[in-house]
Amino acid sequence: MSHPIVRSREPAICQEYRLMQTRRHFFGRSALGLGTAALATLFPPESSQAVARSGGLPGLPHFAPKAKRAIYLFMAGAPSQIDTLDYKPKLNDLFNQDLRKMPEVHGNQRITTMTSGQASLPIAPSKFQFAQHGQSGAWVSELLPYTARMVDDLAIIKTVHTEAINHDPAITYICTGSQLPGRASLGAWLSYGLGSENSNLPSFVVMTPTWSGRRDAQALYNRLWGSGFLPTHTQGVALRAQGDPVLFLSNPAGIDHNRRRSMLDRLAALNEQTFADLGDPETRARIEQAEMAYRMQASVPELTDISGESKTVLESYGPDVHKPGTFAASCLLARRMAERDVRFVQIFHRGWDQHGNIAGDLVNQCRDIDQPAWALIQDLKRTGLLDETLVVWGGEFGRTVYCQGGLTRENYGRDHHPRNFCIWMAGGGIKPGVVHGETDDFSYNVIEKPVHIHDLNATILHCLGIDHKRFSVKFQGLDIRLTGVEPQQPVHDILL
Known about the structure:
Blueprint: H1 12-18, H2 23-40, H3 45-54, E1 69-75, H4 103-106, E2 130-133, E3 138-141, H5 145-149, E4 154-161, H6 167-176, H7 186-194, E5 204-207, E6 237-238, H8 257-278, H9 281-304, H10 311-316, H11 327-339, E7 344-349, H12 358-382, E8 389-394, E9 398-403, E10 414-417, E11 421-427, E12 434-436, E13 438-439, E14 446-448, E15 451-452, H13 453-463, E16 473-475, E17 478-480
Parallel strand pairs: 1-7, 1-8, 4-12, 4-15, 5-6, 5-7
Antiparallel strand pairs: 2-3, 4-11, 8-11, 9-10, 13-14, 16-17
Helix pairs in contact: 8-9, 11-12
């Protein structure tokens, strides 16, 4: 379609911009306006006001939530459940026996190419001592003495399982509900559905602290906290340990506070014109993100300044709390974010991929996280926040009972094992002092109360007042849910 030449005093580039209005934009804008008007008639006035306050969806939460926020301590690389929380004493009598000769245990399960070519799959009992703790009688390894002290605050699930057997699809799967990249992450779903109760900080914050175990750890990709098909403002904001906590937080040289405000006002006016012309909601998202960045110039430095914390609190997290970028420092910041009503905080602690040298690397990894995770739970209890804050600890899959590489009584390695692994949960909505499910004597198969990773995510959503079956987004012609299309359900045995 050609356009007539119109004489105008407008610059040629402005005329060209106005002529860019296509039929698709026209009908898109019309549909957007009609859809908004129609949607407004479906909800009572108080629901509309709630959306304005929180930025979430009308009708959410579906029911009264036990938790207002969540903190996810993600052990990227997969902790060995046999050496931490799944005690298997009968393995001591089976040292170095070949699991391949036990078809009743091994069956036809997949194994990775890293061990499929070994002459045998020698059974490796844990070299670490276990003991029962608390009124729950939970068995905990000597590697986690602080975790052992708080077992009566935890619900330990021993039977989580997944279909993914390699790191990247497995961590993508548990974080986004799909092994294929491109889906929205758990934190983005929560931000989208529930919005934020703090206008000066993001609703979803991510930290990736240092680690002490295996140095060549698996990579982390920002899709693990990405928004996928959801609005971009729902994606996680990464908090850095060095330089500005958030990139470009500080004004560059020559730009003061007032000039920054003036620039943002002019930018917002241009974006508002773009929105009026094209009706793309992402334009509004850009305006909101720019304003959030402006407010964060004050709120983030205040958040990361721990000088006001008491000596007792700082000591509870251990000596690493004073080192920016450590797991201990990240846990303290997570508590400070909970106080400020950040909806979802996710800490990715790397280095848990112990294919060898469990005697060295796993010990260091557990030392990194054990005391800080305990301190986080105690700190939340001290401040009265634990009852309304859900805390989750775990990785993307488990480790094999058989050894990868050379085996001795004192050292060994373990390959990937998706059939069962352990996580723990505590706080808002979770029944304390519970051990859920059981595995066989080899920690190789679930024999009682299996929990799929979709069930785990359904449980997290439930604690925050969301029915996972009613929480979906239309995308590519499908109603997409975080928990997939299979009949998953929350783990009711651990819920209050």
